[in-house]
Design goal:
- Chain A: This is YciI family protein.
- The structure holds 2 protein chains of 2 kinds.
- Chain A contains 2 helices and 6 strands.
- By secondary structure, chain A is α+β, with helices and mostly antiparallel strands.
- A 4-stranded antiparallel β-sheet of chain A has the order 2-5-1-6, covered by helices on one side. A two-stranded antiparallel ribbon of chain A has the order 3-4.
- In chain A, a hairpin with a 2-residue loop joins strand 3 and strand 4.
- In chain A, helix 1 packs antiparallel against helix 2.
- The N and C termini of chain A lie close together (12 Å).
- In chain B, helix 8 crosses helix 9.
- Chain B is built from 20 helices and no strands.
- Chain B is mainly alpha-helical.
- Classes of the chains: A alpha+beta, B mainly alpha.
- At the A-B interface, helix 2 and strand 6 of A face loops of B.
């Protein structure tokens, strides 16, 4: 079994959803996806992230700690949330990623964690 | 000596794909499988010139590679890591005590589907299209990285990096080594068919050599395997039929001096009657299912051509109708260009030229060649010569280039 990071990417340069009904549907579908993943025994951890403007970047360079307001790199698209799921192979991961993408209504990037 | 080396090279092209596929199943590691097979060929190079070529060179290669692989697994300091990876690819839990004996046990397993499994792995949609084709050419068809690089018009080092990256993704993202289950098959099959079609075309009308019959045969053989394994998939049948009917013309495609002979001038008595019969039977069988797709329609077009004993007897109206159907399924400029060739026969070169001139294919040699042919037929010989010359600039295939340059000179 391998742990995969499923990261959801949002384009933060525009509103994520058209109206509140869409937001509600997304939360409902995502909660249902979480239930399904838990029932399947593959769920490790999941979470949604606050907006990128709440981020702070800390970088230690030559012994100096530099603290910067905001995310590390300039980009329109950022991780909005993620799952960590444990699955036997990439085909299984891609099948779950399709469900996850449909539920959260965004593109889902699948990446394996390094083996221990 | 040279004869042995030539023969060895031929055996390598023919057998390395099968050997690699078998070794991947045993070892669960593509790089290790390639190494073992390369090693076996190095040994062949030492032994065969001295002892003579064994009665079954292929079996010798696979057996030597297997023994070599078992040795390596036994000695490897990182054998547990390698074994873990093998478990990933084969679905074992990785807890068996002795990796070498586990590998040895796999020697006697059925090898019939090894290549199909490796094809589905190489053609996984998680890999980019170029990586899929490159991996298939390298691992299944046994092409050298140098040859694949030439086909893609990139430096060899670049292609080596792409292959390494693709193999690393298969291992680390855990792309499984298997034929996908039936519910996933149609989507996955499309990727496999696209790759086999590209390999066939490279073999039929290569970018580097005028023709690579071994590649075309290999693509046909693999498609035949696919068709046997998936008899209910009409597009797999369609692609097989297309390959058989296209391949049937090979004996008539070049004259004694290696020059290209156009379809209209080919000696049809030299077409391979056995391949035509088989191809036509497969076309009829898949069209009967009523689920037409682009490969089936292209095969049907090839079947109409093969029906005509003389070029003048070709049923161009039927071909035009089939191109209309193909365009509906697969609306691309290249399909429109091919349709225009049939249109020229049904409604004349002027009508066809009007269509061709509107297509955005200025960098495609066959666009220029088709224009040149139509211009010639309309009596615009100077324009035709210029178009043939431009066509020659855009092809990589030496025989095609020679043909086009000759037409540019002669008019």
């Amino acid at each position: 079994m391998t742990e995969y990071l499923f990261s959801v990417h949002h384009d933060y340069s525009k509103p994520l959803f058209d109206d509140d009904a869409d937001v509600e549907a997304m939360f409902r579908d995502t909660a249902a996806f979480n239930d399904e993943a838990q029932a399947a025994g593959i769920y490790v951890f999941a979470g949604g992230l606050e907006a990128p403007d709440t981020a702070t970047t800390v970088h230690v360079r030559e012994g100096q700690t530099v603290t910067t307001d905001g995310p590390y790199a300039e980009a329109r698209e950022r991780i909005g949330g993620f799952w960590i799921l444990e699955l036997p192979d990439l085909d299984a991961a891609l099948a779950w990623a399709a469900k996850a993408s449909a539920a959260c209504q965004g593109p889902v990037e699948v990446r394996p964690f390094q083996g221990v | 000596m040279t004869t042995t080396q030539d023969e060895l090279a031929a055996v390598f092209r023919r057998e390395s794909g099968r050997a690699v596929a078998t070794l991947v199943r045993m070892l669960g590691d593509i790089d290790a499988a390639e190494e073992a097979v390369q090693d076996a060929f190095v040994r062949a190079l030492e032994h065969w010139p001295r002892d003579g070529i064994p009665p079954s060179p292929a079996a010798w290669i696979v057996a030597t590679a297997k023994n070599r692989a078992i040795d390596v697994v036994r000695r490897e300091s990182t054998r547990e890591e390698r074994y873990r990876r093998r478990a990933v690819l084969t679905g074992d839990d990785g807890t068996q005590a002795d990796p070498a004996s586990a590998v040895a046990e796999r020697l006697d397993e059925s090898v019939a589907d090894d290549q199909l499994r490796l094809i589905f792995t190489c053609c996984h949609p998680a890999l980019g299209m170029e990586a899929r084709v490159a991996l298939t050419l390298r691992l299944i068809a046994g092409l050298e990285t140098r040859d694949i690089a030439r086909a893609f018009l990139v430096p060899e080092a670049t292609m080596a990096q792409r292959l390494t990256r693709a193999k690393r993704k298969i291992a680390t993202a855990r792309i499984p080594y298997r034929v996908p289950p039936s519910e996933e098959l149609p989507a996955r099959l499309e990727a496999v068919l696209a790759v086999l079609y590209l390999v066939f075309n490279e073999g039929y009308s290569g970018t580097t050599d005028a023709t690579r019959p071994d590649l075309a045969r290999e693509a046909t053989r693999l498609t035949r395997e696919l068709h046997r394994l998936l008899p209910e998939e009409p597009e797999a049948s369609g692609l097989l039929a297309l390959m058989l009917l296209t391949e049937s013309r090979r004996p008539a495609r070049f004259d004694g001096d290696g020059h290209v002979v156009l379809l209209e001038s080919q000696d049809r008595s030299r077409w391979d009657a056995g391949l035509i019969e088989e191809g036509q039977a497969v076309v009829l069988d898949c069209l009967r299912r009523g689920r037409p797709g682009p490969y089936q329609v292209q095969a049907a077009i090839a079947a109409v051509h093969s029906d005509a004993t003389r070029f003048e007897d070709t049923d161009w109206r039927q071909i035009l109708t089939l191109y209309d159907q193909l365009f509906a399924l697969h609306p691309t400029a290249v399909v429109e260009l091919n349709r225009a060739v049939a249109l020229a026969e049904v409604r004349g070169p002027g009508a066809a030229l009007a269509v061709v001139d509107g297509l955005p294919l200025e960098r495609y040699h066959l666009w220029h060649a088709t224009r040149a042919n139509l211009l010639n037929r309309l009596g615009r010989t100077a324009d035709a010569r210029a178009a043939y010359a431009t066509a020659a600039e855009f092809t990589e295939n030496p025989a095609e280039r020679a043909f086009l340059l000759e037409r540019a000179e002669r008019g």
